Amino acid sequence: MLERLRKKMTASFESLLKDFSGLRTGRASVSILDNVMVEAYGNMVPLQQVGTVSAPEARLLTVQVWDSSLIKPTEVAIRNSPAGLSPTVDGQLIRIAIPELSEERRREICKLAGKYAEQSKVAIRNVRREGMDDAKRQEKNKEITEDELKKLSDSIQKMTDEFVKKIDDTLAFKEKEIMKV
Questions:
Q1: Which of 2, 56, 85, 153 stands the most exposed, by the fewest C-beta atoms within 10 Å?
Q2: So what's the pLDDT on residue 42?
Q3: pLDDT band at residue 5, thresholds of 50, 70 and 90?
Q4: How far is it, in rounded angstroms, from Cα 51 to Cα 126?
Q5: Helix (H, G, I), strand (E, B), or coil: what is residue 31?
């Protein structure tokens, strides 16, 4: 049971890391475009399925679009993404200059990071509650003793505290990275 709960908590934490990777920190990172969806051939597909994303310089991203008919939809998708980027088309290549972030925008991004961290903590606590309910059910059905229930509950709480601390530490690191000027 503990291993199953650890896997669920790990999945929640990894989801947070993925969310954090999409936050702009003022440096070019291909993960900024991970959530951009492009309308291609009548379907919405991830940007990575229509072109190659790279970061040739610290403040520049490029998207090499494979099909020239998808250049305009790709540009529009990037422009309309929540990342707030302004792409420019250069033949089959879309260039995206990563502007310096203002202090206000950095604070907004930190707030968003905090929101992501809180959602992750809620997910971790839900896994804890599920585990505690399972343990209580097992004790009620006489599958485990009261002492085993106490040990299991302590282990579940310890694991929860461990993941909440990892989330807090990761958030602190991300905020520091975002606010670095």
A1: 56
A2: 86
A3: very high
A4: 38
A5: helix
The answer to whether residues 78 and 62 touch, using CB atoms and an 8 Å cutoff, is no
Q: DSSP secondary-structure letter at 30?
A: G
For 95, other C-beta atoms within 10 Å of its C-beta total 14
Q: What is the DSSP string of 114-146?
A: HHHHHHHHHHHHHHHHHHHHHHHHHHHTTSS-H
Task: Give Cβ neighbours of residue 144 (< 8 Å, ≥ 6 apart).
Answer: 135, 138, 152
H helix runs in the chain, sequence order: 2-21, 71-79, 103-140, 146-179
Could you give the count of Cα atoms lying within 13 Å of 177 in the half-sphere of its Cβ? Answer: 15
Largest CA distance in the chain: 70
CA distance 96 to 57: 11
Q: Note the pLDDT tens digit of each residue in 152-171.
A: 999 999 999 999 999 999 99
